[in-house]
Amino acid sequence: MLRFDNLTLGYDRHPAVHHLNLDIPAGQLLAIVGPNGAGKSTLLKGIMGKLKPLQGQLQLNVAREQIAYLPQQSRIDRQFPISVTELVGMGLWRELGSFGRLTKGHRHRIEHALEAVGMQGFAARPIASLSGGQLQRTLFARLYLQNAQLILLDEPFNAIDSRTCQDLLQLLQHWHQQGRTILAVLHDNEQVRHHFPHSLLLARQLVAYGQTADVITPENWQRARHQIESFDEHAPVCHQSEKDIA
Ligand SMILES: Nc1ncnc2c1ncn2[C@@H]1O[C@H](COP(=O)(O)OP(=O)(O)OP(=O)(O)O)[C@@H](O)[C@H]1O
């Protein structure tokens, strides 16, 4: 589904993550973990195509329209004057285009998606009036309608209560069983151990990838912290591959 070939991503010619070599097969439910500033969000932005590689290659075995992305909630403008229906309806953009009008059939599907995330009855509410958990459920309803094969989630369970978290985790399980590929940036190791079969531990470079039990270990976390501390924030892109370093 995804291949990173000596991939370096960054900002203003300074790498944020570098020398990633990895194949991620289709159908994985994969947690991306690592210390603050490890490059986790940067990697999702690279996969989304929002950032072009500074070096190396990122190969996607899925059409761009088949990728759904949920940014960190702090990146979403809650004051934007739209209703829950309009926000969830954005999940239908592939069918509607930019200026398409919602038909009765579309509204029915939006209602159904809202029901699936426990938000029935909220369709007419402005998004500014939602709690953090309600907004996150609404954003999951939008993902539901997007019906994407590759789903990228950046800290989807931050600052939401355990009930909401359990409900949304169940939805992820359901999507996983349908064969979709899901990559989620997470900070809660216990949650990762319980719900995510595979993990990728990142600290500007790859620390470990594989079965969660093998990846989330005290030794690997120690390596990750050490790698972050020794990373030079201002270094330019180095034209060296991981093979050269080894
Ligand atoms: N838009 C940007 N412009 C310049 N530098 C950026 C930008 N976004 C992120 N960075 C830098 O890239 C590095 C990796 O940041 P990133 O947000 O990818 O880390 P993260 O692992 O997601 O962190 P956290 O767990 O704190 O959310 C950091 O040093 C950060 O300051």
UniProtKB/TrEMBL annotation:
It holds the Pfam family ABC_tran. Keywords: ATP-binding, Nucleotide-binding, Transport. The keyword Transport applies. InterPro entries: AAA+_ATPase, ABC_transporter-like_ATP-bd, AztA-like, Metal_Ion_Import_ABC, P-loop_NTPase. Residues 2-229 form the ABC transporter domain. It comes from the Bacteria. One of its GO terms (molecular function) is ATP hydrolysis activity. SUPFAM superfamilies: P-loop containing nucleoside triphosphate hydrolases (SSF52540). The keyword Oxidoreductase does not apply. Belongs to the ABC transporter superfamily. PANTHER family: IRON TRANSPORT SYSTEM ATP-BINDING PROTEIN HI_0361-RELATED, METAL TRANSPORT SYSTEM ATP-BINDING PROTEIN TM_0124-RELATED. This is Zinc/manganese transport system ATP-binding protein. It comes from Tolumonas osonensis. The lineage of its organism: Bacteria, Pseudomonadati, Pseudomonadota, Gammaproteobacteria, Aeromonadales.
